[in-house]
Amino acid sequence: MYRYDQHDQQLVDARVAEFRDQTRRYLDGSLSADEFRHLRLRNGLYIQRFAPMLRISIPYGLLSSAQMRMLAHIARKYDKGYGHFTTRQNIQFNWPKLEEVPDILADLATVQMHAIQTSGNCIRNITSDPFAGAAADELVDPRPYCELTRQWATFHPEFNWLPRKFKIAFSSSTKDRAATRVHDIGIHIVRNAAGELGYEVYVGGGLGRTPIIGVKIRDFLPEADLLSYCEAILRIYNLLGRRDNMYKARIKILVKEMGLAAFAEKVEAEWTTIKDGPLKLKDGDLERMKAQFSQFELDPTAAEDGSYAQKLSEDPAFAAWTRRNLKDHRVPGYKLVFLSLKARGVAPGDVSAEQMDAIADLADRFAYGELRATHDQNLVFTDVRQQDLYPLWQELGRLGLATPNIGLLTDVICCPGLDFCSLSNASSIAVAEEIFDRFEDLDYQHDIGSIKLNMSGCMNGCGHHSVGHIGILGVDKKGEEWYQITLGGSSGNDASLGDRTGPSVERAHIADAIQTIVETYLKERLNEEEGFLACYRRVGMPPFKAKLYAESQA
Amino acid sequence: MSILLDRHGQRLEDHYPELAADQSVPANQAVLVPWARFGEIPENSKAGLLLPNTTDVLALPEAALRLPLLVLEFPSFADGRAYSQASFLLQRRHYPGQLRARGQAVVHDQLNMLRSCGFTQFQLRGDQDIDLCARLLSNQPSASTLRRFPSLP
Ligand code: SF4
Q: InterPro entries from the entry (chain B) (predicted)?
């Protein structure tokens, strides 16, 4: 965990007081509704279809058990007993009362949490690899870099009134688990040929109405220049980004309209003049940042345990779970453990207050008191000894958090959609449930293998549909819910946008359509090794299209 | 009557009446000239210059940087372009004069940000509580002023 120092705490406390004052001025009429809207959004507070929605920041997805207990408390005291983890590694509460939000923020501040810049046209939560610090394929731990960037971005006086929201993601591993190419700025921490650390920088990626994959603006940026380079990009964007049309206001449109070369030229010119100024990282800056993260000693004897192997051979259900829901840790004898938030009958990403408390207890017992939120709306314990896996699995099973479906078809990414969001055209959660029912048979799912199904209730794309291997987008057709399907998207290293299959599909046929697509894949694939994405990229749209529309017309 | 505050919340007298459309730019008098009429400002003028937030300040003629006052416009509450114009003027063009913010964003909830970006004068929007704004600038640390990273050199 990053632990606040006195300064960090003061800043968050000051924001609580400021927001309390802004709320008071709104309620007594001295602050207009429109201006309060801008200010409350910058503090994560939306007015939704049924009630306000409060989005709480979880920087780079990292949570302590104490913070998780506080979220449980908030769910119980101010909400209807649950919270919703989002694709931004944040958590949302859907039913707080406007008047009580300052109190919620004050509660959050006691455990070093806040809702600062979780919405509005400013720099949003910095996201990263949920496996940071534990991944086997990691170059360095990206979190100190994320935290530095977070502190730079927090209340940046110049960049609080941007043309549109701005998202930054970090990756430091061979496999990009942070979807960096669909962020306004995507940063890969790399080592150059001379052995120095630095960054490969991507710019202009983003989902939403006009999804675009980010392009590389710099092959290698020296380690000390992280913040000055970001500052240069933001400055050019703030001045030149479009403000006449909110659908063209993201940096991706600016980069596209100007051309990468012209945009990069302006950024470089600005960066050259500021790079040796106060934003240049000094020796020790990163070290100090690292030191503010709590350290824990991993057990050097963890790999000697024999009980894990024994349980694997004794209990096939346990073995099935380990195959899907565990990932390799950089240290032998340890595993990363996924807590699946995609159980039957539960909206993807939803967690009840009771589950939150229990998860916090399990984190204390088995995972050094820490957990992560992932961008595909699950939770992860990053450091679990193999001898603890069996008891942990049993506990998770009791909590409904051990569905062995990570990376499978039912591990759907899904926005809150019609149920909560005022912008939605179509229900996403209900469709996710229908698909769950259809594909629940795990043997069948295992046969299908790894596949990403992403679903959004409208063009804003909070459910990342355009980078799903299969994407589903809710559209409105004369007041009815229809669904547009895309195939072949990816948010990984080989990021790509999905292609539309053709005309949209009506509500009653969506689950059939997904089944048709899956069956077509099973028929077309060369062998079990060829995953959905690879197969689609090889055979293209025609076989899928032929099946899909032949059947829906029949 | 618009109210002008300095960086410490002190009231300032506005010595720069806006140039009327039918008035010519006086030779040696403080007056606020719109960007469209910049060409009419004589050398060594005491005039101030009003810049729209779409002006490319990197391309601003040197003569403009010798003027004692530049006024940057905030046409709406949420349009933050002039914040970055200020950064460019101070960091890239090393403008030494007074930098005034005026318009819809010059309100209590943005004063600290404006100040952090180097503005030296604040022409408060008409509906603002003057005492509250003055107090904010004179003493209260706010969340945004507690930030660790200074933008200005
Ligand atoms: S994708 Fe649309 S419907 Fe879904 S949460 Fe985002 S804005 Fe709402």
A: UCP030820 (IPR008318)
